[in-house]
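Usage example:
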Amino acid sequence: MPQGDYIELHKKRHGRRLDYEERKRKKEARQVHKRSKQAQNSIGIKGKMIAKKNYAEKAQMKKTLKMHEESSSRRKADEDVQEGAVPAYLLDRENTTRAKVLSNTIKQKRKEKAGKWEVPLPKVRPVAEDEMFRVIRSGKRKTKQWKRMVTKATFVGPGFTRKPPKYERFIRPSGLRFTKAHVTHPELRCTFCLEIIGIKKNPNGPMYTSLGVMTRGTIIEVNVSELGLVTPAGKVVWGKYAQVTNNPENDGCINAVLLV
Amino acid sequence: MAMNTVMCLLTDAEGTPLGSAMYIPHNAGHLQLTNLVNTFINNEVKLSYSFYVSDEELLVSVGTYMERNSVSVENVLKIVYRQQAVFRIRPVYRCSQTIRDVHEGEILCVSFSPDGKNLASGSGDTTVRLWDLNTETPMFTCKGHNEHVLAVAWSPDVKCLVSGDRDGKVCCWDPSKGELQGNALSGHKKWICGIAWEPAHLSYPSRRFVTCGKDGDARIWDFTLKRTLIVLSGHTRAVTCVKWGGDGTIYTGSQDSTIRMWEITHQGQGILKHILKDHAGWVNSLSLSTEYVLRTGAFDHTRQVTCSDEEMKKIALERYIKAKGKVDSPERLVSGSDDFTIILWEPSVSLQPKQKMVTTARLTGHQQLVNHVYFSPNGQWIASASFDKSVKLWDGVTGKFITAFRGHANCVYQISWSPDSRMLLSCSKDSTLKVWEIGTKKLKHDLPGHEDEVWAVDWSPDGEKVASGGLGKALKLWK
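Running the assembly step on the lines above writes:
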């Protein structure tokens, strides 16, 4: 490789050879034969590489030729029929992208019986008892330690009345009681604030389910009458299950995803 | 033993009294009042009537009514009588057939022929299918469109079927063979929103029909010549609905929130008569008080066999005059709009020589846009379907609100009346159809079974069958 520009300098000062153009033209014409001889006579990996490169070039050339040929003949392309037919009165209205909201009630009932659901969060971190409860000391000398206060979000039903304070073992503070949850529909991707009807199952244990504690992964039942869902039999659906997806005691609200 | 009597005055729906005020025994009930009205009007055949006192139906005897509502005996009680249809249609309660896998696309429109013998459905798979109602199976598949078929309409003489699609093309079919006649007619630049035929009493056999489209034009076509006769342009936005009135006026409602009235002169020109500008949002639907009669032409529930053309035209004219009411009372127009209101228009008797439609009443009450309004076949009631999940019933003459039918869980899309005006059918986004009874103002039957939204519903003019279809591609026939 020339390290310097003496070649260019010479070209500038003295010009090119007189037969430069002719020699150049003939040399380029010979390249074709040289290339083909190389391609035919190379063996081994070198040959394969050359063959691959040539093939790629050939395919590209064919494509461009076809493209050029197409435009020369003018033909109205047959458009495919569009998906998503709607009647005339709905055509100008933007409809939310529809996902199937109707679920099969028989499948649902079977799932309920088996106690198994396909849930978005199958595994949750188990919550230990000392994290869930705080020991409340009571008695004149504050030595009795049989009372516990729940430190996580809870749901108590609308007709809830506390047991007499002397006898209640589990205290559910009213500051941690929630009635509404922000439920997201997984396919429609919109969130509604729906009332909680009850706690179905808390993965940490049946005791927490009966207490009404809502931690991450709990299955709750929400009131979906405002979504306007109808079963295939024609009945209006008003309750559906949802799974809690956040830690309500940290955020102050319950976020859940609807189980369809 | 003194018979307690009540002073009553019988008036018809428009307010003209029948005879003068008279004394009626206080135990007079429905039967006695019917006899009275029949004798006063000198009906040859006893027709049945329903009676209303201050817009509530009078179901008990007059005396009991007076006691319950503590109306003073000294005042004259005004009883309004309304004629009910002579025939009674059986309510539809069961699905007789679900036809799946025939239409490969969603069903966008269904229409029974005026004689009730044929059914046509247009779908997103670009075909129009004709169905055999005796066996409830598909009869013909009409291929000719390249895009979704949005509207389908039968001519009042049952000889022609016309369909419009999303490209703006109009196809004319021969319903007896299911064949395309001619080519697909182009003219509209965007999709077609509605089709209306010229009434049978104006021209028999039917030749002309008008289509309206998104491009803002309405075009009048001739079926036999297969070309556009007149283009009615003027609307600035899409024309959503078009109706051909019995006096020859064409009404078009548009998204520019106006309704235009057009007339065709003898020279074959289409001129604009009036622009009705009272709405504040898109006009979604129009309905004329004589609409049902104009659609069915010379056919009625008795299913007469065809006679000659002139006779059919005469029968159609008779039916039209009867439906209008008195000879000089013109047809009323009702329009439902995106501004949640419905306006009842009546031609005004004013100093101007031209008859202009004036707002008689603005029917408010819906909480969402009104998608479909429909006059009952006898012109006495107006039903409106709205996206607020309710169907509302209004008086057809005064526009007063009568009742709201609630029960649907999602937007109500379309309504259809039974031919005797006693029942109303509504189809909705929640995949159910509901039959409502006008007399009791309650839900009569719930017809679930569709897998998805129901977009089109029609009750056959002979009252035998109902057809419905929607997003789930099955067509359902109900009996």
